[in-house]
Amino acid sequence: MQINQPKYIDREKSWLAFNERVLQEAADHTVPLLDRLRFLGIFSNNLDEFFRVRYATVRRISMSKDNNKKLINGVQAKTLLQEITEIVIKQQAKSLAILQEIETELENVGIFIVDETQVNEEQKNFIHEFFIHKVSPVLVTIILNDLAEFPLVRDSYGYLAVKMVKKSAEDPIKSIKKRTRYALIEIPAQINRFVELPAIDGKQYIIMLDDVIRMNLDNIFSIFDYENISAHMIKITRDAELDFDSDLHKSFLEKISNSVRERRVGEVVRFVYDSKIDKDTLDFFLDKIDIEAVDSIIPGGRYHNRRDYMSFPNLGRKDLTIGKLNPLPVSGLSIEGSIIQQIKHKDFLVHTPFQSFNYVVKFLREAALDPKVTSIKITLYRLAKNSQIISSLINAAKNGKQVTVQIELQARFDETSNINYAETMQSEGIKLIFGVKGLKVHSKICVVERIEGKKIKRYGFLSTGNFNESTSNIYTDVTVLTSDNRIMKEVNKVFEFFEVNYKIYRYKDLIVSPHYTRSKFTKLIEDEIEKALNDKPAMIRLKMNSLSDYKMIDKLYDASRAGVKVQLIVRGICCLIPGVPGLSDNIEAVSIVDNLLEHSRIYIFGTDEEAKVYISSADFMTRNIDERVEVTCPIYDDAIKTELIDTFKIYWKGNVKVRLHSERLENRYRRLGEERFKAQEELYNYYRNKIEVVLD
User: Fold this and answer.
1) Can you give the residue ranges of the Polyphosphate kinase middle domain (predicted)?
2) Residue 676 assigned as binding residue
3) Fold type of domain 11-320
């Protein structure tokens, strides 16, 4: 290892490098055009969340009394903020250039995104009617000059900052400043931002909702006598940290509800504006919103909130999108028969979205009706808008089952949804547990108790992802359906911990945070180190979302120095630096960003013949290891163990959509061989072949 060689990559910069990979997908000409727009939307949405959480955290440190506090690699918080802002400005400029390129390519295939100056009379009439009947009734417009208090500007909403200059005929000596009025128009979030216009000669046209409003400014402000009017978009991002009061008389549900409401007025961490806005208009809004920090003010283009491109209409153009996968059945597991009876004899793995999430829903629906089932216990983190999981649990409660739900009210940005679901379940007689004080519950587990003879038999599932039908269509996750008493008995212990959390339970099989994950994973790595030091084959293969815990990184460095071969698939943040002589020679690390979001966490210790295989809800991040309730499940079924090892190998063989992690964060594509190998496609084929083998 070279002198002064840094051991870690800065976490925030590594995250920005991940979002750059998303942007690469938007720029990739092999990706269908409408999917490229979707990736632009994902990039923008990710960036919003980054500013609300990570940037806000660094900013808090920079503004603290101990503002000289060093961050990673000796960089001060204020310096890091400046570096982040510089990176973001470059990425935003790149995203705008990519958008312009996509719009040009869309025009080549007959799709035109137009503004208010580019529409014909028929389209103008359509826009006018659309505004009158759809937009005007929900439009929030505020005249600002005479207000004693400036209105709340909502986090991440789009606004038009309007400037009106009144006619001067009555008093020509009045100054421009006195003749100027300002207004704020909130762009309605309940209307799709992309309005389809009447086609012309087979060509399709889209106009932004912003421009629909701009075209109707005269209609909106008809009572004002002005000679000039302009409207430019602005957007703010607020600190999303939740602050809780200490009132012992309030329930946890009430505290979370109040805290979410308080978030609406959190500190502004970013103000983005149309760079063509008049300086006096910009100064007016900066002053009224009380924004002083220069690093929070970012110039942009005519349109912001490009996250809305995630909802760009497909216009019936299936040729311009990959579309959703058609989920495959799980080999040997019939969704039409009893799931409980099938997993009584054998464990099954469901790998979404390659295979159907309906197996999980069917299991819960069956448990809700089965007269022998007495109880259902489940953890919930993020849920679909109209959750079939919730519906199944309510159905179970109505059928007399004892239903216990641990619902995480602090699931970031899903708090309001989870509060609403919690209130609904409470009203249906479901027992709710609101976590463990000081710990988020991020585990993905369920246990069902069933009377069989004179004994209680437990069935259930453990997963790497949320029990969410919507995200299961685009997130890759693995779920084990099992009745293995070794596993289910300890899953039940986790629920006992939720209720009696002053008691630390012991686990022989499961690895549970915050008490055992660090020590157990450390031991697993040390076992491989010992093998290598004794000249035995040693190997570690880890697939996760983020790797940022320095102690775990140091253990992987130890493994590399001992001669252990380490293969890492890390989609997002990776603070480990691979390939450094004397430090990480034996470590390779890649990221896969493709049409599906890689979310499964698969951990393999040892070579194939003696491998210990786990699935987990936890990444190698300090918060997952020490500050949350997470569950890592060992895989005992040989067929599933082989399947997960095969899965890792397929991902590792990929040479399309695979980038190399490196200290310089270049996001270079990995090149392996000449034959194209796209891991997500090959994994789908792998599962399809499993079905064909059974049919043969």
Assistant:
1) 122-312
2) no
3) polyphosphate kinase like (3.30.1840)
Q: CA–CA separation, 547 vs 590, rounded Å?
A: 12
369 is written with which tokens? Answer: 């009706």
Q: What is the mean pLDDT of the chain?
A: 90
599 labeled binding residue: yes
Which of the listed ranges 256-260, 421-425, 552-556 does the model predict with the highest average pLDDT?
Answer: 552-556
Token representation of residue 510: 């499961």
Give 532-572 as a 3 state SS string: HHCCCCCEEEEEECCECCHHHHHHHHHHHHHCCEEEEEECC
Q: Which residues contact 318 (CB under 8 A, 6 or more apart)?
A: none
- pLDDT value at position 249? 42
- CATH number corresponding to 339-499: 3.30.870.10
Higher pLDDT, 667 or 249: 667
- 4 labeled part of a ligand binding site: no
Structural contact between residues 647 and 351, judged by C-beta atoms closer than 8 angstroms = yes
Q: Is 442 a catalytic residue?
A: yes
Q: Within the chain, what is the greatest distance between any pair of CA atoms?
A: 96
Q: Any known ligand binding at 475?
A: yes
- The answer to the question of whether 659 is labelled as a binding residue is no
Q: Return d(Cα 400, Cα 638) in angstroms, integer.
A: 37
Q: Considering Cα of 668, then 671, then 672, then 676, what sign does the dihedral take?
A: positive
Classify residue 619 by its DSSP letter: -
pTM over 0.85: yes
Alpha-helical (H) ranges within 268-387 are 279-288, 339-343, 358-369
**Is the separation of the CB atoms in 460 and 411 below 8 Å?**
no
How does residue 53 score in pLDDT terms, banded at 50, 70 and 90?
confident
Examine domains 339-499 and 511-693 and report if their fold is the same. Answer: yes
- Catalytic site residue from 232, 304, 351, 442: 442
- The torsion angles phi and psi of 374, rounded to 5 degrees, stand at -105, -30
Residue 557 marked ligand-binding: no
Superfamily grouping for domain 511-693 = Endonuclease Chain A (3.30.870.10)
| Secondary structure of residue 184 in the 3-state scheme | strand
Strands (E), 62-119: 111-114
Q: With CA atoms as reference, report the closest residue to 277 among 297, 305, 307.
A: 297
Q: In whole angstroms, how far apart are CA 329 and each of 88, 359, 477, 506, 684?
A: 43, 9, 15, 37, 11
Q: Could you tell me if 405 and 430 are in contact, meaning their C-beta atoms sit under 8 angstroms apart?
A: yes
Cα 78 → chain centroid: 27
Q: Which two tokens stand for residue 197?
A: 């216009």
Domains of the chain, by residue range, sit at: 11-320, 339-499, 511-693
Quick one: how far is CA 412 from the chain centroid?
A: 10
pLDDT band at 260 (very low <50, low <70, confident <90, very high): very low
